[in-house]
Amino acid sequence: MTVLNSKGSAARPLRAQGTINHVLVVDDSRAQRALLSASLARQGFSVVDAGSGEEALEIARTDPPDLVLSDWMMPGMDGLELCRQVRALPRGRYIYFILLTSKSEKGAVARGLDVGADDFLTKPVNAGELLARINAGDRILKMERELSEKNRLVSSTLEEISALYDALDRDLVEARKMQQSLVRERFRDFGSASVSLLLQPSGHVGGDLVGLFRAGPGKVAVYSIDVSGHGIASALLTARLAGYLSDGAQEQNIALVRDVDGSYVARPPQEVATLLNTLMLEEMQSDHYFTIALAYLDLATGDVEITQCGHPNPALLRADARVEYVGQSGMPIGLFEQAEYDHWHLRLAPGERLLLYSDGFTECAGQDGVMLEEEGFAQLLTQNARLSSGALLAALVWNLDDFCGTLDFSDDISCAMIEFRGGGEVSQPK
Question: Rounded to an integer, what distance in angstroms lies between the CA atom of residue 70 and that of residue 77?
């Protein structure tokens, strides 16, 4: 093995002007190697030579060249096999490969291309043509290495993004658990009535919220909220609202005030809506808004007092399985400073159920793109009317799955359902 530069010394200066600087010349003829090596060294290339394919392959492993210039016909490992072996090496960077051959037929060239040769030169080699072919390879290698660097940067960036996504995904999984914990009870029995709750975000976290809280002696409050948008910001707002309508800390619940005897009683529901609107506009200053249906149920009589702020009309499921939509939809919370809110009443008869639900039900699109709407939702309620309250809500979710073809709904699904039995003993809410 001989290493030459333009002065015939053992130094190996790099050509600053090109990508191809280090050349490996392979030929079983010592004279041919010396001729090619001297010609390349005069052009400023750092040259190393090898007298066999086996020797050249070992050099390519230990000190990869930029270019291999190899004779095709050699004893032992010929140029074709050498090219194949070079291409099979663990790839750090691309090695340009030129085969020197007296073969000119198309079949031979095709075989060389198949094993990975980049170019061909016919022997005897013309120095000017050789330099032109190397310069062409230089341009190709330059583009290849620029592309490799860009790919490296892209891969590195994708790895960073993937790591961030995994961390975010873990956080969102925990956030989903925390949001689900806002609905601590999915069912509560009060003797003469019961309340069932359903909350299923469309993603990790969502903007729907349902809940209940004590509303004074013999009364329970039930609410259904739908925050605009989806994702983390909407979920954070639901967490804030859950604190304002807390069942565990009556002194923090804005729907409750102290009576003269020190006990807590409920504000009129329309006043609660006004307070929430003020909080949204003056304290939270959020770009989001929300709709809500807030109902106070008298456990003894079945009387229900409701304020409805942009929320879907509640569904009244009669004891005979008929469905009626009741309501007087008002303005959403958090849009207008001077918004006014009203309330209305109804009385539940024994065996009747009242559903406060989000529009994730009625606006669920089927496989044909058509929404379920109120009529379709009423049909599902009638179809499942014989089921107990908790089973009915679960059945509705499966019905939606059949309707749209997936449990990955495009919007959050939530519902708070009051079932009034009447005629029984009233259990004081705990």
Answer: 11
